[in-house]
């Protein structure tokens, strides 16, 4: 793209050197720079992109967007000094990629728990109803069935814009983003023209990053403000009426608010819920009438998740009857109350629950069909929010027997993690075993016929991060090994 065209909306303080005629690519990582690229220097928390501008120039960058004047060869690369390079990146990326989000149906899903499930439900419902859809989230970047790796729940701004551009180039006109509070605060979604913003729920998590629930809640709210003020576009906020943040998020947008609830009348609400070991049934009351709904998704929170997904698609004109019909065939997302197939006379679920609220909901959701005991394993990550640990164990105490272990211990010792968890235990029937593989084995050794076993914390992840190395790990594989020895 011609440089003058690319920088037409960019405010800058000063230009050093002469601008290249063309920009071939935008990059924020010096290691990815190719000839003719513009390199935008971004500050991280541990490293600063400004320190890599020299390397970027050596690799062929011809324009550097920087917050300070850098000592670089003026004949090789021009510099544009900007006040804030993240904002500059948002403006440049929007122009460079041609604002693709404006031409697509874009859904953003935020909340503490349920983001992955709701995003996946919207994505799969669209595909089931003959649409094409792309999804970016914890599980990766799914380009209408072609799954690619991505590092974060909400990727950096450049990756995000490239995803939308790629989806558009493939002829896909729906894009779903799983939106983290980190992503919102760091502006990783600036410039994205969302059509529907969905809120699942807010509970204790990430306080190492946000420090207070107030800030955490505010961060999530940025998604609803991002629907914008242009009322010539039909947009909607889909909000959970059962959560105390409902009113505040509703106040953040002039667009239509669609409510959903499991507890009281709302635009979409559930009545007569029946939880089974492998299915959930409820009566859906909607603006288009009442429907008997059946889903393979399990547990209380998935009732809420299905309501959210149906409401989000209703906001884009889908018929409720079609959505209810399509929902029957949609399988749970990997690692979200996922039933592990086994011939042994017990039930094993893998779940991602790693907050007190999610743990409580996971355990309560299997209580209706409990015949013997509930055995529950929880781990928590090292070097992350420690304040939630006792509350997690407190909720885990709802189970008859609990094993306290680790998710990704990173650099923290096993003992430090399990000791924090142990502080919240409300009964004595538990064991602390920091090594997760040994913890899973131990739990399975205790299992008896008709027990319900839940492995929480790792969900879809097939690895453990110890120090900074990823090791293969699968709760279900270990559990099935023990079953083959014992049953
Ligand atoms: C480990 C960590 O917390 N890293 C955060 C930190 O990054 P950092 O200090 O390492 O710096 P960096 O962003 O890697 O580097 C700064 C710049 O230098 C550039 N660089 C760097 C090295 C080099 O050789 N060349 C080069 O050009 C980088 O490309 C970048 O542009 O500072 C950045 C802020 O500018 C954060 O975006 C980044 O979050 C990373 C991406 C991260 O993974 N954060 C986690 C906490 C996160 O976002 N998690 C949520 C999940 C939430 C949930 O579970 O719901 C998510 O959305 O994934």
UniProtKB/TrEMBL annotation:
Carboxylation is probably crucial for Mg(2+) binding and, consequently, for the gamma-phosphate positioning of ATP. It is an enzyme of class 6 (ligase). The keyword Nucleotide-binding applies. Its main location: cytoplasm. GO terms for biological process: cell division; cell wall organization; peptidoglycan biosynthetic process; regulation of cell shape. GO terms for cellular component: cytoplasm. It comes from the Bacteria. Pathway: Cell wall biogenesis; peptidoglycan biosynthesis. It is found in: Cytoplasm. GO terms for molecular function: acid-amino acid ligase activity; ATP binding; magnesium ion binding. ATP binds at residues 111-117. Residues 109-312 form the Mur ligase central domain. Its EC number is 6.3.2.-. The modification N6-carboxylysine is found at residue 220. Its cofactor is Mg(2+). PANTHER family: MUR LIGASE FAMILY MEMBER, UDP-N-ACETYLMURAMOYL-L-ALANYL-D-GLUTAMATE--2,6-DIAMINOPIMELATE LIGASE MURE HOMOLOG, CHLOROPLASTIC. HAMAP family: MurE. Belongs to the MurCDEF family. MurE subfamily. This is UDP-N-acetylmuramyl-tripeptide synthetase. It comes from Jeotgalibacillus malaysiensis.
